[in-house]
């Protein structure tokens, strides 16, 4: 329960705090102690030795994920264009072989704006809720959302350009912004009676543009991407997107998680450098893990980037219902 | 507060309020009433329609005449919402069963209507009566909208199941009555009067007339819009004058939530 509350707090923008030793088990303390004894050249030999054991390709999960995003969005397009009728609609709401699916954040927006519970939507919302609870909430972000893919490419461009031009620098924002924006857009929907957030949602805009053809409002998505390339990498997904927060809440207790194994971790930090939400990897910092096995928090998008880059195989997917 | 945290905080405030401000720009077209749109059948009153549409476009996908399109940035909060441009392609109800209504996951196109005659999309209005051929006592011969026109209509007598291009259908009329002749409501009334209601379902029979030609003497006629008009826009599409005589007036139309 305490872990869950902490996971929520971090999801809402709080920085993770380093736990006292009193909160750790004896074996965890011993493991931390063991790590402090390995230093310098010996440490790098250790990491190298572990790296040899690991046969994952450093792009394995990213490749799978990119294929997933492209295939899912292509299915939407082909269902309409070629009349395949597999997933009709767009990411905001659809029918998957006839079954209603509704994006949770879009459903929330129209419920607040319309001020009526739409019975037809209940089925779609419940279905989607169960799916993303099982698979881990923000898994939607990194495995389905088309903006996520573009944003990853924008990040790659940013990383290419920033060493060459001194004026292209990454700027951090306060992560609490996302929780505030989530609330503001919920209130705006209720007060104005319009689904205000949907006007600027890059997920909805892109999904509709893919299925129904390009539109001028795509320029807004381009503007966001330009902002991410030149000013703040992954800005939208990290600091702004209310959809991400909604799914983060849904997947907080999901069976599918990424697990950090302290015994294999040498605090190399490679995972935190590539992670969209590095605060969920707090336990990979030196002396920070409270347990030998830590499940990453609710903000984790299960993108698997950390698993890809971890030189010692300390991170892995895990699917387990209950404790 | 250190200098970096203060900067970080300021930057966050500016970015967050910027995002909210950009999203609220969508209010302007609504308040100014920049755009008036003909919505698909069953659409709730405009305010409720904008509130309840989840912007998925499933109605677009099922329309057999591809009458429904998706709005763009100039509609503000209304972006991504379905509309119909009747002069280009009207809703001719060739699906009979109101497929768009059935496809709508939120009831923004309300499931309270089951038949074409129950729709209230707009009212047809004689915007340019001076152009009307019938009012000048003239007939019409040829293609209603020219050879390049891409719109389609269901011509029951030729093909019950597939809409056909208007550009493939020649007319030869002594008095131009295209707006009455192609009116989906009038067609249904005629079928019902002949004992052949659409799909054999008497519920498909419209209770009221939508449009008729009223003689005004000297072999001239005036199209009169009647209470049964649902505002589907077929008369606007088929009118052979350029620009067309009839337009849809959607103000105040729609179904109560």
Task: Spell out the key features of this protein.
heterodimer, A: 323 residues, mainly alpha, three-stranded antiparallel β-sheet, B: 257 residues, alpha+beta, two-stranded antiparallel sheet, 8 helices, 25% helix
Can you offer a commentary on this structure?
The complex is a heterodimer of chains A (323) and B (257). With 323 residues, chain A is mostly helical. Chain A contains 16 helices and six strands. Chain A has helices at residues 2-11, 26-37, 40-53, 60-81, 104-114, 119-135, 139-143, 146-161, 176-192, 196-200, 202-212, 218-230, 235-240, 242-250, 270-274, 305-309, and strands at residues 87-90, 93-96, 99-102, 256-261, 293-295, 315-319. Chain A is globular. The longest helix of chain B is centred in the first third of the chain and has 22 residues, at 3-24. Chain B is elongated. Chain B has helices at residues 3-24, 27-32, 46-52, 58-62, 99-103, 178-181, 184-193, 234-238, and strands spanning 68-70, 82-84, 123-126, 140-143, 152-153, 164-165, 170-173, 211-217, 220-225, 246-249. By secondary structure, chain B is an alpha+beta fold. Chain B has one domain (35-249). In chain B, the strands form five sheets. A two-stranded antiparallel sheet of chain B has the order 1-2. A two-stranded antiparallel ribbon of chain B has the order 3-10. In chain B, strands 4-7 form a two-stranded antiparallel sheet. Chain B contains eight helices and ten strands. Chains A and B meet through β1, β2, α5, α6 and α9 of A and α1, α3 and α4 of B.
Short description:
Chain A is mainly alpha-helical and about 325 residues long.
Describe the SSE topology:
The complex is a heterodimer of chains A (323) and B (257).
Chain A: H1 2-11, H2 26-37, H3 40-53, H4 60-81, E1 87-90, E2 93-96, E3 99-102, H5 104-114, H6 119-135, H7 139-143, H8 146-161, H9 176-192, H10 196-200, H11 202-212, H12 218-230, H13 235-240, H14 242-250, E4 256-261, H15 270-274, E5 293-295, H16 305-309, E6 315-319
Antiparallel strand pairs in A: 1-2, 2-3, 4-5, 4-6
Helix pairs in contact in A: 4-11, 5-9, 8-12, 9-14
Chain B: H1 3-24, H2 27-32, H3 46-52, H4 58-62, E1 68-70, E2 82-84, H5 99-103, E3 123-126, E4 140-143, E5 152-153, E6 164-165, E7 170-173, H6 178-181, H7 184-193, E8 211-217, E9 220-225, H8 234-238, E10 246-249
Antiparallel strand pairs in B: 1-2, 3-10, 4-7, 5-6, 8-9
